[in-house]
Design brief:
Blueprint lengths: L2 H8 L4 E8 L13 E8 L13 E5 L6 H5 L8 H10 L7 E5 L19 H16 L9 E6 L1 H12 L6 E5 L5 H4 L4 H10 L4 H10 L5 H16 L22 H8 L8 H8 L3 E7 L6 H14 L4 E6 L7 H14 L3
Parallel strand pairs: 3-4, 3-5, 5-6, 6-7, 7-8
Antiparallel strand pairs: 1-2, 2-4
Helix pairs in contact: 3-13, 5-11, 7-9
Length: about 350
Amino acid sequence: MSIQMWSEMLGLRGDLEICTLRSEGLAHGVLDAPADRFIGVYLPPGYDRLGSQRYATIYCLHGHGSSLLKVLSAGPWDRNLVQQADAAMLDGSLHPAILVFVDGATRLGGSQYVDSIQNGNVAHHVAVEIVDEIDRRFRTIVRRSARAIVGKSSGGFGAFHLAAQYPERFSALASIAGDGYFRMTMPMLFPAAQRSFERHHGDLEAFLEVFERDPSRRSEDFSTLFILACAAAYSPRSKRPFDVDLPFDRATGAIDDEVFARWLAFDPAEYGPERISAIAQLSLCYLDAGRRDEYGLDIAARTIARRLRENGVAVRSEEFSGGHRNTTERYIGAFAALLEVLDR
């Protein structure tokens, strides 16, 4: 589909281009994630491919169970994120910028944007491969101070992880209802996952095959899939597909403290001095959450914000009346906050 067709279908004044990129980083995974990836690139109204003006860039990470196609989907009464950003740039409420939409979809619903022997080098793919490709192909401002990263849910966790692991790449982050404070938010999902895996006699791949075929999936099935995706990211055991350590005993469900400690090492609420130092270099650390978040991620955001502030990090936090879903409009506020601090 041509650039013009995408823009016309969505009614954009800017342009939406779908690029492809062959990823060396993802080729190392063992869970059959495609190494050829699509990237959505939104170019603001007035963008001139032959001109001299360059733009700040915001990299956008979707949540678990989503994809680039889902981000770009739109209905007759609902505007997607690209359409809302386009309207905001057109009316002047949002500074013109390039928006890059990463496709982080996998067979497990996502990778938490973490390098692992199960998923491949996902963090490297986003922070190095994609950033370098976007800088090569488009009129970006090619420096850290003009790049930000934002995500929702698992994508919010990913924004934290990539900003901490690649501080030379991004100068600001925004986490919208991002995963965190694992000590509270993760264990509430463990019982459903343990029961599901027990029904499949501990065979994780068997659970996934049933999940993929079942047209009437339940909420606990999605929770189980999320726990499996987290295990592949945080506690892989070997390069054998689905060979992961779970944070609980498969037979009893009792929490395995040793494995759970490996998960906690990734948690923004548990960051040590090195990662705190990387986050402290940011010009903005923006967190938001809905006060009725179904997964307790409002409490996670408050906890992370407090702990970062205690360590001298400048944090801006916002709370909304909603829950974990229907957060697209909240991205526009995050974009506005990020663009206030990025080089333009």
